[in-house]
Every structure is written in structure tokens, then in C-alpha cells.
Amino acid sequence: MTSDPIVQATAGAAPGARIGQPVDRIDGILKVTGRATYGYEHRIGRAPAHGCILGASIARGRILEIDVREAERAPGVILVMTHRNAPDQPEFGAAVTATVPEVFTRARPVLASERVRYHDEPVALVVAESFEEARHAARLIRLRYETEPGAFDPVAPDAEIYRPGRTNAGFPTDSEHGDFEGAFSVAPVQIDASYRTPFESHNPMEPHAAIAEWEGDRLTVHTATQTVANIQAGLASTLRVPPENIRIVSPFIGGGFGAKLILHPETICAALAARVLNRPVKVALTRQQMFANAGHRPAMRQRVRLGADRDGRLTAIGHEVLASTARFEEFAEQSAVPTRALYAAPNRRTTHRLIRLDTNRGEWMRAPGEASGLLALECAIDELAERLGLDPIALRIRNEPERDPELGVPFSSRNLVACMRVGAERFGWRDRPLRPGSRREGRWLIGYGMAAAIRGNYLGPGSARVAIDAAGQVTVQADMTDIGTGTYTILAQVAAERLGVPLDAIRVMLGDSRLPRTAGSGGSWGATSSATAVHNACLALRQRIATAAASHAASPLRGSNAIEAHFADGALRLGARSESLERLLARIAPEGLAAEGSAVRGETYRTYSQHAFGAHFAEVAVDIDSGEARLRRMLGVFAAGRILNPKTARSQLIGGMVWGVGAALMEETVLDRRHGHFVNHDLAEYHVPVHADIPDVDVMFVPEEDDKGNPLGAKGIGELGNCGAGAAVANAVYNATGVRVRDFPITLDKIF
Ligand code: MOS
Questions:
Q1: Pick from 479, 464, 461: which is nearest to 525 by CA?
Q2: Given 320, 330, 386, 719, which residue is catalytic?
Q3: Which helix (H) or strand (E) holds 737?
Q4: Pairing of strands 246-249, 281-284
Q5: For ligand 1, what atom is nearest to the CA of residue 522?
């Protein structure tokens, strides 16, 4: 078994640092020196065998014949697993535990029948002594299929459209306020625009990978996940093993972006094969397999209708979303949900509808809902501003709501206007070309664009444990993950501040299902939720230390009032007397003290509408002949509560903004409409922005503290940078060219 994941702040990492300071990542040195161990790399006691998945070469149909004889005879091969010999698994969807949302608990059997539901769905697993041997043997498997016609066109005019029960994250499918159709039809100014967004794929640098090892009926899985509890629950259902018998270990993760929230085939394959062989087995998805097997953002058509009076006051807002989903499993991205809270208007309608395709299901992809939804809404608002001859910022300010326009409750805090004003000043918005297509520098047309950002602020229930030993060393423990976002660092900062100890006295242990349960990393709730649990655990630990210090026979502070405890500079002061924690603990608790704390979503999540806000500004240049659009500079200004660490926060937000640039200009997973496979399934052909595409991105924060969401006053930021960022770029392309492309991405062929 591998040693426990332990990350310790190094002395070089600004020992005095506290919440709100730009502390370097405490896990940074481990990562850049190769000592951080990822899912596929863990060394475990017994050498694992290597699995290689063979995917189906059809998208819908069934396997008629599968001949594995040659593969089984190939060098190094230990096992060839297909639907004919895979261990019995429950039907898809059967759930055995309810400790995480049902979608994560569903049994997801692999190699379970001759049915093929999507292209590249696993049809065989070859296990060999080396990966190369397994891969070679996988190619020797002969398959004969019966292919059935499938649905592969996300915009097919004759597709059957249906209404899902709920959208992702439990948001209602539709919302209706006032008389949208009536108000829109009589509005003096109308925008009625349809936008298309393609399939998009999140492809973390680290592909999905797992090492599975059984000891009797107990399973340990080293893997890469955003939420260990989800993988534990999904495996429990799929393997029919009690969740408490499954340990998930995931201390370092090479990026998640929503792709690592749910159980995927490589982990199930590894667990099944390891059980059959009674030997550890490791399996990773190849980069190409990631595209079909690790989810995607669904393709969409969105219709936005805006009715306004001649002063630009919105009277009607309508946002209708039509998205693709899988035939075998529903996923409804909540793309019209941000529209429910962004602008005031008495008459409103949002709807979500789905069409079934024979692809894998969609998944949560960074800023699920907002990334796609705001690409439509915030471009439509820009179109309205143009029609009215109004500054897009002035139009947005005119429609700033007093309260949440659909829920009717106040916002916990809402500093969108401040973000726009500060951003306009910093960016030089007043110098923008007022007439589209009017500014030229050599062969480049120059344009400015902006858009608003909104993202719900959430809190996921969970807990954390904080312990202090007799040497004054503090250990923070939670099953929370750090997917590259900086969790280790901010949790150390919170504990250091709350306990009044230097940062280098803190070590943080994460990503292990044996540690206190959290909601993991996802939905931008990771930092606030886990930091809240650590904050509360520290308060409980303080009380425990103070109480012992005031009463313990060996305590130099005995007899003091425990209520007047101050923790600072590594010492506890009770009233007038003070003692270092190290000396104190050695006397009163040589075995150390520990406490747990939890994060609970309170009533304020019902009585306030909670969101983070921001404003994006982009300048682009478009080649006058080729139509090539290039970002020149970009600014994001954000109001996201108290910023726990401006350095990691800035990195998160820049990353999100780069996603927006990709969505606006480059990203598209192309589905072959004849055979149903994703054609550009690698990072050579799936275009994402690279360094040369991102010249100058700036991030600013509007100071904000929000006491409604959590005791730290913080809000989530992971998705926020991506919310509206694409629309700012798209609006800049329009401003540069006078051409409004509503079919994303805005590639050069669509501009001129
Ligand atoms: Mo979030 S969809 O887990 O980036």
C-alpha cells in the first residue's frame, strides 16, 4: 500500500501568510520535482498488471461475434475480458447507496452485454504484463457487429424533442413569469436570435486512470477524481460491494474541469479485472478514448428573445435551450439558468428541452450552464445594445435588478455594476470603436467587446478534521481534492490564520475516502465548502485547547477564563497570560488534540439569491482577408466575496477566461453524422488556445465580503472566469467586423 498523501507547507512559503495573501502553492515543489504522485503512477505493494480497453467501432447496435483467441495467445497477456466472461454486474442505473446524489451512485456496468450504446464504448479489456503487450493484443481481437441506425445530428429538424424532469444540479426545467409572449410581441424593440454551440470536450492533461487492488473483499483504488465519495458510491453499486469496503485515494489530480466528477469505465475495468485476477490492475483511458468515454458538453441550439422599450428597459426575456443527450442516460445542462437572475424584466420565460442521440451522455464541463448559456444571452444583449444605440454597459446597468427577478429574494451581494465600471476604466472602454468594422490597423480590423459574468454560489455539505500534536504541528484532513486549483494551499492558510500558527506548521492531507467526507471539487463549491469545514474544525479545536489550558492541572494557564482565548504567533493567550502552543500541548495533551468541523448549507441559501459576478472585456483583431480572429488583450473584473488567495484565484480566473476564448473561437468536437464518432478526438485536432493565442490577460477583484454564504465571506470562483468570457470575445469580433456569427466557434470561414 502506498504511503498516505501528505503535503506540507515548506518554510519558503511565506510562513507568516494568512487568508487573503498570495501564498505560493504548498504542493508546488512536490509537483515540479516529480514527487507528486498521480493516479496511474502510484507504487503499490504488488506490481500491477496493465489493462488496455478496446472500444466499439460502431455507435449503435450489438456484437454478433467476438474472437479473442489470437489476443489470448499474444505475449504477456493474462486476461481478455469481454461481455462473455466479465463478472456479473447489476443493470445500468441500480443504486446501492444514497450518500451522494443519485447520478453518481448509479451502477455503470461495463462489458456487460452485447449492446453498443456509443462509439468507442468498451467492448473488451486486455490485461497483460505491460501496457504495450495489452495494446498489441487488443488489436488482435476480431469483432463482427450488427449495426443499427443511430441519431447523430444534434440539430436534426425531425428530431423528437422532449422535456427533462429537471436540469443539472436540480434546477427546474422551465420558468415562467408574467406574460412573456404577450410582452415580447408588443415590445417596441425586439431581438430574436438563435445561437448554436457545438459539442465540446474537457480534456485534463492527466487522462482518467485507476489502479485497483483487492485484499479479500476490500478494494483500494488509486485514481484521479474530483470527488472521492462519488467514485466510491458508483463503484459500490457497480461491484455490489458496500461503500465502506472501498477506499478511494486521489491526492493529486492533473486537472478536472467536471470530467472527473463521475465514475468512468477505466476504473470499473480495473476493479473487475483485479478481482478476477486477484492481482492489482491499472487502466487508463487513452487521449482518444477520453473524447467518447469521459463526457462532453452537449451540443445546443439556443433561442434568446429580448423585448425592450426605446430607453432600453427590458420588458421580456426569453431563453429556450435545446440540447443533445444520450439515449441511455439523461444529462440536461442548465444553460438558461443564469438568465433567471442576471437582468430585470417583468415578463420572462426559460426552458430546457433535449433530443436523444446515440452518443455517450453529456457531463458537467467547466461552467456548466453559464459557459453555453451566457454565450447566447450576453451576445443577444450586445445585439440589443447595438439596436438601441446604447453603450452595452449602460444597457446592462439600466436592467440591473433590485432583487432576484425570479425568486423575489434579495441578492446576498451583487457587485456586477462595480465590476463593469472598474473594468471599463481599466480597459479603456471609452476608446472602443463605436461603429462596427470602423477601426483598422494594417491588415487587422480591431474590435472591443464586453459581457457580464454570473455564477451561482453554493455550499456542499462536508466536514474536516484538524489536529495539533505536542510539537505544535497541525494536520488538516478531509477527503477533499486539489484538482490543480490550490486547495492544499488555501486550507493551510485558513488553518494557520484560525489557529494563529505559521503556515509551515500546517500539513494538509486530502483525497482519501478514509478522511472526513466533503462535497469534493466541483461546481465552484470546493474552496468555500472545505474551507468552511476547516474553519469550523479550527474553532472547535481552539475551544478544546483553551478549555484544557484553563483547567488542566499541568497547565501554566490554569485558572484563566477559557472564553478569553487568543491564538496568535504560535501561542495561546488566556487573559493576561500566554504560553506557546508547543510547550502548552506538551504539558496538557502530549498525545495531541483534534476536532472536527462541518460545512452546512444554511437557511440563507433560501432567503438570499447567491451568486458571484464579473465583467469581461476583450480586444480582438480580425484579419481583413482571411477572417482569422486573434485575441489581443482581455480583462476580467470579479466580485467573488473574500478572495482566500489572490494568486491561486487569479490563476483560476485566467484559466476560465482562456476557456471562454476557446469556446468563442476554436473549440468544437465534431460528431460524424453518419457513423456517430467524434472525429477530431485528440489535442492536435481539437483546438484549444495555446500560449500564442493568449497574449495578455488581466484579472482584477472588486473588494467584497459576503456573510450570507459561509463564515469566510468567500464565494466560488472556479467556473466564474469562464462565465460570459466567450461572449465578450464574440462581441469584440462583431465590433471589429460588423459580422454577427451566431454559430460557435467563430472560425475564420464563418466571418467573411
Ligand atoms: Mo466543474 S463542471 O466541476 O469545472
A1: 461
A2: 719
A3: helix 725-737
A4: unpaired
A5: 3
d(CA 627, CA 444): 9
Which 3-state string (H, E, C) describes 446-515?
A: EEEEEEEEEEECCCCCEEEEEEECCCCCEEEECCCCCCCCCHHHHHHHHHHHHHCCCHHHEEEECCECCC
Q: How many CB atoms lie within 10 A of CB 65?
A: 10
* CB-CB contact of 660 with 192 (8 Å): no
468 C-alpha to ligand 1 centroid (Å): 33
Phi-psi region of 317 (alpha: psi -120 to 50; beta: other; left: phi over 0): beta
Q: Which residues contact 514 (CB under 8 A, 6 or more apart)?
A: 247, 479
Q: Strand pairing of 474-477 and 462-468?
A: antiparallel
Q: Ligand 1 atom closest to Cα of 260?
A: 3
Element (H, E) at 175: strand 175-177
Architecture (CATH level 2) of domain 49-149+224-277: Alpha-Beta Complex (3.90)
**How many angstroms separate the alpha carbon of residue 173 from the centre of ligand 1?**
20
Domain coordinates of the chain in residue numbers? 7-36+460-600, 49-149+224-277, 402-458+606-751
Q: 117 is written with which cell numbers? A: 450504446
Taking all residues of the chain, what is their mean pLDDT, rounded to a whole number?
Answer: 96
Answer yes or no: is the ipTM higher than 0.95.
Answer: yes
User: Is-catalytic flag, 329?
Assistant: no
User: How confident is the model over 502-520, as a mean pLDDT?
Assistant: 96
Atom of ligand 1 nearest to the CA of 257: 4
How many angstroms separate the alpha carbon of residue 51 from the centre of ligand 1? Answer: 28
State the DSSP code for 507. E
**What would the CATH number be for the domain defined by 7-36+460-600?**
3.30.365.10
pLDDT in tens, 300-352: 999 999 999 999 999 999 999 999 999 999 999 999 999 999 999 999 999 99
Pocket of ligand 1 (CB under 6 A): 226, 256-258, 261, 364-366, 368, 522-523, 718-719
486 Rama sector, left if φ>0, alpha if ψ -120 to 50, beta otherwise = left
DSSP assignment of 241-282 = --GGGEEEE-S--S--TTTTSS--HHHHHHHHHHHHHTS-EE
Pick the atom of ligand 1 nearest to 261's CA. Answer: 3
Which of 230, 337, 364, 372 maximizes ligand 1 atoms within 8 Å of its Cβ, making it the mutation to test the pocket?
A: 364
In the block, which residue shows the cell 486512470?
A: 209
Ligand 1 mutation pick, 167, 231, 257, max ligand atoms within 8 A of CB: 257
- Tell me the chain's radius of gyration from C-alpha atoms: 27
Contact criterion met (CB below 8 Å) for 180 and 349? yes
Residue 84 to residue 363: CA distance in whole angstroms: 29
For residue 521, which atom of ligand 1 is closest to its CA?
3
Distance from the alpha carbon of residue 678 to the mean position of ligand 1, in angstroms = 22
Query: Same CATH fold, 402-458+606-751 and 49-149+224-277?
Result: no
Report the b/e string of 388-412 with b at 16+ CB within 10 A.
bebbbbebbebbebeebbbeeeebb
Q: What whole-number distance in Å separates Cα of residue 466 and Cα of residue 542?
A: 10
Q: How far is the CA of 562 from the centre of ligand 1 (A)?
A: 43
Give the tens place of pLDDT for each residue, 435-472: 999 999 999 999 999 999 999 999 999 999 999 999 99
Pocket residue to mutate for ligand 1, from 225, 366, 458, most atoms within 8 A of Cβ: 366
* CATH of region 402-458+606-751: 3.30.365.10
Strands 300-308, 314-326: pairing is: antiparallel
Closest CA to 207 of 283, 136, 110: 283
What is the C-alpha to C-alpha distance for residues 571 and 261, in angstroms, rounded to an integer?
41
What is the distance in A from the centroid of ligand 1 to the CA of 658? 15
Question: Could you give phi then psi for residue 503, rounded to 5 degrees?
Answer: -60, -35
Tell me the pLDDT band of 157, cut-offs 50, 70 and 90: confident
